[in-house]
Write a structure and sequence with these properties.
- The structure holds two protein chains of two kinds.
- By secondary structure, chain A is α/β, with parallel strands linked by helices.
- Chain A has helices spanning 22-34, 47-55, 82-91, 109-117, 130-146, and strands at 7-8, 11-12, 14-18, 41-44, 69-73, 100-104, 122-125.
- Chain A has one domain: Response regulator (Rossmann fold, 3-Layer(aba) Sandwich), CATH 3.40.50.2300.
- Chain A contains five helices and seven strands; from the N terminus they run E-E-E-H-E-H-E-H-E-H-E-H.
- In chain A, strand 5 (69-73), helix 3 and strand 6 (100-104) form a beta-alpha-beta unit.
- In chain A, helix 1 (22-34) crosses helix 5.
- The termini of chain A are far apart.
- Chain B is α+β, with helices and mostly antiparallel strands.
- Among the domains of chain B are: 252-343; 348-497, Histidine kinase-like ATPase, C-terminal domain (Heat Shock Protein 90), CATH 3.30.565.10.
- Chain B contains eleven helices and seven strands.
- Chain B has helices spanning 3-86, 93-116, 121-148, 150-158, 161-298, 300-303, 305-344, 354-364, 366-371, 389-405, 465-475; strands spanning 349-352, 374-378, 385-388, 413-422, 426-433, 479-484, 490-497.
- In chain B, a hairpin with a 5-residue loop joins strand 6 and strand 7 (490-497).
- In chain B, helix 1 packs antiparallel against helix 5 and helix 10 runs antiparallel to helix 11.
- The chains are: A alpha/beta, B alpha+beta.
- Chain A binds chain B through residues 21, 23-24, 27, 30, 76, 105-106, 126, 128-131, 133-134, and chain B through 268, 271-276, 278-283, 327, 330, 334.
């Protein structure tokens, strides 16, 4: 199995996984690893803690400057909607270009359209059937290998 | 304002209506009767007045006759005196004329008096005697002039015999005139009384007419007001009924929305842990495969009998059960999600060629039909309906699928579909099979979610199809029922409202 680290200008990209279900988070991580992705994955189980990390306590986004980030975002979070997080990230001057992959169970057309309208880069539905789920995440991980991630300015 | 009061009031309306009507009629009859009485009284009074006028004329006639008698007697006397003075026969003309007219006048007077006998027979006789005496005196005088000369005749006059008779005649005539005048005064006074009575009756009649008019107007007014009140009340009732219906409908649709939302949220939330169970079971299976390889390398002897059995038999079996159960649970959740989604789907009514729709449904099941060695016969002509195409496709695909699925083993399946109008407002489609049938106690159960007929348990299925069919048909305003005998096939009867013409 080919093992790789997604990086930008030599600096490794950090994968931010915002997922309230620990089990899901573990299954996603296992399958991403199976695709050979070696990047650091930082999991967050709530919207607030994820925003603290991404935009800082002051929500200015300055803390993110110089980082290379990729966000995996679940829409169903206990404290806020994933869409709110998407709006905040895409609306921020610093994190606006940061790629956001929506990874959720909802396959509602309205949600999908709305997310793309708000600037989501990829929308992936978590299949309930585990084989499909596993395949989807592995393929997503493989896609990361060819993705170009910008440095946050 | 309670509902019972409203209904009492509503019930009493026709009664009020008839009372007001009866009152109006009664007042009209009373008014008419009063008017008739007034007309009769007026007629009587007019008759009385006419009678009075006749009597009055009679009195005038009598008075006139009496005075004329006197005047004629005076004329006769004037002729006698003229002849006596001048001696020319031409002066006798008034005398002779008077003599002639007097008889007629007396006859007229007697005739007039016969009606009421105002003048007593005695007075009349006296007057006739006096006339006779006067005429005798006059005749005697004239005979004397002709025979014995004017001087002797003058002596007769000078005897005052003539003047005495004349004075007495005047007294008698005066008496008659007085009687006539008295009677005239009496009659005129009576006439005045009648006129006055008439006036008062007229005033009273006018008053009564006004009174009846006022009463009638008030009754009609009250009647109209009652009707208006009733109408307003009816409007209010209608309005409140509409309001209540609207409220109830809003409540129901709110409740329905809530159920739909609830269903969606529940199924959605159930899915998250299910993904974990399925995911980790698969992970376990994957890891177990690795462990199995390692265990085989170590060998059963080193591993021990029990551990080996666990790795080779029990653990794969446990994982297998977890996986089949979760797969089934996933199907159930998907079915509920689908129901919830279909429940929210907007219906699109259009005219549907039912034969084409059923042929398509049959074509979609061609593999199952072939495997079951069945024959599906769709009636060549079926009524077209105006309904939601997607829903009906689901309904008939499900029904045909069921018919094929639950055939009797060993017996060639015969499935038929026909359709017909039921009255003007519904169209019936019947899907009939010669399959295993449904026992009476299962006939309602088969339409319930996750419930299946006892005889269907050998076939795969979650018990969703018919529940979904009923749900879809009810959304269209239709219904489904089944007629069956266990072992004798089943006929599913679909009723769809006939919306188009």
């Amino acid at each position: 199995m080919r093992v790789f680290t997604v990086s930008t200008n030599g600096a490794p990209v950090t994968i931010i996984m915002i997922e309230d279900d620990d089990g899901h988070a573990r299954l996603i991580e296992r399958n991403i690893r199976r695709a050979g992705v070696c990047n650091e994955i930082i999991p967050f189980i709530s919207g607030e803690s994820a925003l603290d990390y991404l935009l800082g306590a002051d929500r200015s986004g300055r803390v993110a400057v110089g980082r290379q980030l990729l966000v995996l975002l679940d829409l169903n979070l206990p404290d806020m909607s994933g869409i709110d997080i998407l709006v905040k990230l895409k609306g921020n001057v610093h994190t606006g270009r940061c790629p956001v992959i929506i990874l959720t169970t909802t396959d509602d057309q309205n949600d999908i359209q709305r997310c793309y309208d708000l600037g989501a880069n990829v929308y992936v539905t978590k299949p309930v059937n585990y084989e499909s789920f596993s395949n989807a995440i592995i393929q997503l991980g493989l896609a990361l290998a060819i993705m170009k991630i910008p440095e946050i300015g | 304002m309670g509902p019972s009061w409203q209904s009492d009031r509503a019930l009493s309306m026709p009664l009020i209506h008839s009372i007001a009507g009866r009152k109006t009629i009664r007042s009209m009859i009373a008014g008419g009767a009063v008017l008739l009485v007034i007309v009769a009284v007026a007629f009587g009074l007019v008759e009385l007045t006419r009678h009075q006028a006749v009597q009055l004329r009679h009195v005038y006639d009598m008075r006139d006759s009496a005075l004329r008698i006197f005047s004629l007697l005076q004329d006769a006397e004037t002729g006698q005196r003229g002849f006596l003075l001048v001696g020319r026969t031409v002066y006798l003309d008034p005398y002779e004329n008077a003599l002639r007219d007097l008889e007629a006048e007396f006859e007229r007077f007697i005739r007039l008096n016969e009606a009421d006998r105002e003048i007593s027979d005695e007075d009349l006789r006296r007057l006739l005697e006096l006339k006779r005496d006067k005429l005798a005196e006059l005749g005697e005088t004239l005979e004397t002039i002709k025979g014995r000369g004017r001087d002797e005749a003058l002596d007769i006059v000078k005897s005052d015999r003539g003047i005495k008779i004349m004075n007495e005649i005047r007294a008698q005539i005066d008496k008659i005139v007085r009687v006539a005048d008295d009677k005239k005064s009496f009659l005129l006074l009576k006439q005045d009384e009648i006129a006055s009575t008439f006036r008062w009756i007229n005033i009273a009649a006018a008053g009564l007419i006004v009174l009846f008019a006022v009463i009638s107007i008030r009754i009609v007014n009250r009647h109209v007001r009652d009707i208006l009140d009733a109408r307003n009340e009816l409007d209010a009732l209608n309005h409140s009924l509409e309001q209540r219906i609207a409220d109830r409908t809003a409540e129901l649709s709110r409740a329905n929305d809530e159920i739909q939302r609830f269903t969606y949220v529940v199924t959605h939330d159930l899915r998250a842990p299910l993904v974990n169970i399925m995911g980790f079971a698969s992970e376990l299976g994957r890891d177990l495969a690795l462990v199995k390889i390692a265990a085989h390398k170590i060998g059963v002897d080193a591993l021990g009998e029990e551990a080996s059995a666990a790795i080779d038999r029990d653990m794969p079996e446990s994982i297998g059960f977890i996986q089949t159960s979760t797969t089934k649970m996933d199907r159930l959740i998907n079915a509920i999600l689908k129901l919830s989604r279909d429940g929210r789907r907007e219906l699109n009514f259009e005219r549907i060629d039912m034969r084409a729709l059923l042929e398509n449904a049959k074509a979609a099941l061609v593999r199952q039909i072939g495997e079951a060695n069945a024959e599906v016969e769709i009636a060549p002509s079926l009524p077209s309906v105006v309904s939601d195409r997607f829903s009906l496709e689901q309904v008939f695909t499900n029904l045909l699928d069921n018919a094929v699925k639950y055939l009797k083993p060993g017996l060639p399946g015969r499935i038929s579909v026909q359709g017909f109008y039921e009255g003007g407002d519904a169209i019936i489609f019947e899907v009939k099979d010669n399959g295993r049938g449904i026992a009476p106690h299962d006939q309602e159960r088969v339409f319930e979610m996750f419930r299946r007929s006892g005889a269907a348990q050998d076939r795969p299925g979650e018990g969703i199809g018919l529940a979904h069919v009923r749900h879809a048909l009810r959304r269209l305003g239709g219904e489904i029922s089944v007629v069956s005998e266990f072992g004798q096939g089943a006929t599913f009867r679909v009723r769809i409202p006939n919306k188009g013409t």
